Amino acid sequence: MADKKSDFIDRQAHKEGIIFPDLVLRPDTLECEIGKAKLELSPAEFAMLWLFAIRCKNSNPPLRGVHALLEEFLAFAASVSITVMPELGRSARFAGFTDQEIAATADSLSEKIKLTVAQENGLDYLVPVKPNSVYGIAMPHSNIFCPRSY
């Protein structure tokens, strides 16, 4: 059963003529697809998008402020097993991330999504950085896929 937030997004999308692309994330290979496009993401960008996708699926509100984003990101990254996302144990060491680094990661992720998603496919909902340092994505839960249960 869909929740109220997902129902609202579905109604808003229908009203605006938005057809959301599927978001497919594969943490073990860092593969990310939005619709038919493949995004090449750094481990930090991938982990951030994965965090936003999970928060969206769980109907969590967007994160407000860079420091809140950093805290949530670090907690999320620490909770992911390196067997699920091997890059966490190889090249991505996030423990020393600063507010500036997490903001730069969010900006970089946003730019990559802007180059991939068309306006009519919900670009405004899929770009994680909003005005006033609000971070998250909003899309129907049915369009978010992670092939394995993590």
Explain this structure to me?
The model has no long low-confidence stretch (mean pLDDT 86). The chain has helices at 4-16, 43-57, 66-79, 87-90, 99-114, 123-126, and strands spanning 23-26, 31-34, 37-39, 63-64, 129-130, 134-135, 144-145. Helix 2 packs across helix 5 (99-114) and helix 3 crosses helix 5 (99-114). Strand 1 and strand 2 (31-34) form a beta hairpin. It is built from six helices and seven strands; from the N terminus they run αβββαβααααβββ. It has one domain. It starts with a helix and ends in a 5-residue tail after the last strand. It has 150 residues and is an alpha+beta fold. The strands form two sheets. It has a four-stranded mixed sheet, with helices on one face.
- Tell me the radius of gyration: 15 Å
In round numbers, the mean pLDDT is: 86
What is the overall shape? globular
> In order across it, which strands form the biggest sheet?
3-2-1-7
Percent of residues in beta strands? 5-15%
Helix and strand content put the structural class at alpha+beta
Offer a quick outline of the entry:
With 150 residues, the chain is an alpha+beta fold.
Write the layout of secondary structure elements.
Blueprint: H1 4-16, E1 23-26, E2 31-34, E3 37-39, H2 43-57, E4 63-64, H3 66-79, H4 87-90, H5 99-114, H6 123-126, E5 129-130, E6 134-135, E7 144-145
Parallel strand pairs: 1-7
Antiparallel strand pairs: 1-2, 2-3, 4-6, 5-6
